[in-house]
# Entry
Amino acid sequence: MSGSALKMAHSYPAGGGAGSQPDQDRRSRTATLGLRVFLAVVSSFFFLFLIAFIARSQLADWQPLTEPAAPLSRLEPLWLNTLVLMLGSLALQWARVAAGQDRRLESLAGCLLGGFCALVFIAGQLWLWRSFVIQGYGFTANPANSFFFLLTGLHGLHLLGGLVAWARTLWRYVRGLGLDRIRPGLSLCAIYWHYLLALWLLLFLLLSSSPETYQTIAALCGLR
Amino acid sequence: MAYAEQAERASVHVPGSFLTRYIWSQDHKVIAIQYGLTAIFVGLVGLVLSGLMRMQLGFPGSLEFMDPAAYYQAMTMHGMIMVIYLLTALFLGGFGNYLIPLMVGARDMVFPYLNMLSYWFFLLSVLVLLSSFFVPGGPTGAGWTLYPPQSITRGTPGTDWGIVLMLVSLAIFIVAATMGGLNYVTTVLQARTFGMTLFRMPLTVWGIFMATVLALLAFPALFVSAIMMLCDRLLGTSFFMPAMMSMGQPLDHEGGSPILFQHLFWFFGHPEVYIVALPAFGLVSDLISTHARKNIFGYRMMVWAIVAIGVLSFVVWAHHMYVSGMNPTFGFFFATTTLIIAVPTALKVYNWVLTLWRGDIHLRVPMLFALAFILTFLVGGLTGLFLGNVIVDIPLSDTYFVVAHFHMVMGVAPILVVFGAIYHWFPKVTGRMLNDTVGQLHFWITFLGTYAIYFPMHYLGFLGMPRRYYSFEGYDFIPQSAHDLNAFITVAALIVGVSQLLFLGNLLWSTFRGPPSGPNPWNATSLEWQTPETPPAHGNWGPHLPVVHRWAYDYSVPGLVQDFVPQTLSEQDQAALARRPGSGESGRESDS
# Structure
């Protein structure tokens, strides 16, 4: 989210002149707030999906994906994907810290690793989709499958959007810009990656829970 | 506290070409005008559709092409256009864009590029919506709430393409609203000028700010339901679609929950009422204070009422679903929260009236619209109390009483504010005044005309006249007087509809030929009236940002030679305005 989407009112440099440190700090603060507001919107979006998921899970035709023969009876592939996403998040945090300490090479390595892990995660999710389809658990076969594809797909789309911003940040390294110019975008990428990791953990937890857990949540929400 | 994130500037950036100045503009004022004109255009389409519906209801069979399918298509498109593409877009995209940076003393929105994209996505959503008139089967006729299963089941008009285009258009609109909303919220929080504390902001900014927060959190519910319904319609999932027979054939769907869609829809739908109402509350507060030459009564109370209404609006949604059935405990809960939300709302009405009390009321056109709003909102709000109670709602729910209530509170009241606000801020936008005589004529026809339309509908509702019906022929329980009243309502609706040409003509003529207004024709205090140029130039404030020294409501301060003190005036400057001893009025005690 560091890219054009949150491009600032660049036409009006601050009193110190365009590109001055206080000016950049101000822009960075504003962009960070903009990103946080955006994440609040994404949270609302996924929260509503999860409520819909719980409500729909209480109807008679729901076939849990965690049953013995179902694709989520073994969670190793999901754990593996989770680890990759976690690594990506850590890498971007490393890049952010290194950029703050003027260690350019480390920062670039962290940034590259962060993006690479995101790509591997998406590939892993696609592989998971393929295994679902091969086992006969296609998108329309059951509402539980539909939700699985929809939630993981939308999460993946958000990550792809993040990769666009990540690519712009990487381009700044390639152009040889100073770390002070790269750091704000990198910081936004790191925040976004951390958020998507937390969101994925929540989705993972929910998707791999038992029908009894859904029942309990539904009862607590007044949906039963 | 973040003052003046976009601080002083070294040089003035001016867009280079006609394209970047007026088409691909990143200037909030141009974007606001683009939003406004597009919303008004699509609103006129909605207005024409309502005229066609009224012709069918008042004079059945008078329009050959108006068969039941066309009627339901007109009804659906009218509802969605007016609520989403006119009112939401105009209040947030139009007034929000124009007024927020000017009122908080910013040079522009904080993400101007995103702001520009917001408009173009909005325009795309409008084009997608309107394109459904030209596809096979026409637009959807599912009713503006788009309830499944009928919205995507054969037999309902527009199930081939119309419903798909409607859902896609809504999704694009939500993307546009989110881009705009990020700007409005971040600009208010980060780009206020020096001295502009949150509690010095005009109530217009507070109203739009809170409405934007609601939009950002509630629109995802519509987005979620649109995605899931598109999956049901196009991919054959069963999120909302139950097992059912259609045209004698079983459908592929099974087990879905139509009620789930209703919950999601109204989780968006009820905050949507306040997404429209809160900006209207803010704008009307400023109109009343300015034209009554009095400080707004209970400013902080008004702010907290806006916040409270915003929060409560998320816990009342199921009062739209009493007839769908729910656990009685929930019915009690939602009826109670609905009554509770009336408290801060009533508080605002009291404060408007108390602002008027002993004010120096100038009955100019914007003030006439503001006063009409208070009355209309009161009527619409009181009938809302009827419908908020389960036991009263159930017999009235499917009658014209609901149509009357809804249009009073959600249609007429906000539109009156839109008109009042346009008459008020037009001089700042164009540097010219609107014609007063035509404005007065427009006001009286619109105000009296809308009452002629909607007051009788309450009575029709009590008679049990059902809403959503294409034709009322052959229903013995509906007396002839009700048919006559329907014809009367149609005539009134057509007069009100045609009278809007007065407004459009006035806008067009005055933009080019209206008398020059000067920078501050209403002697108003808030920041947008203190710009160095009118209309404000790109960047709004010339070389230096304004500095704010007071709130926006210093009207009729005792002991001063003029009855308003601009927000930019310091205490020392104010001393220069002090009336010399023995020169006349003693002045009242300040209640600010």
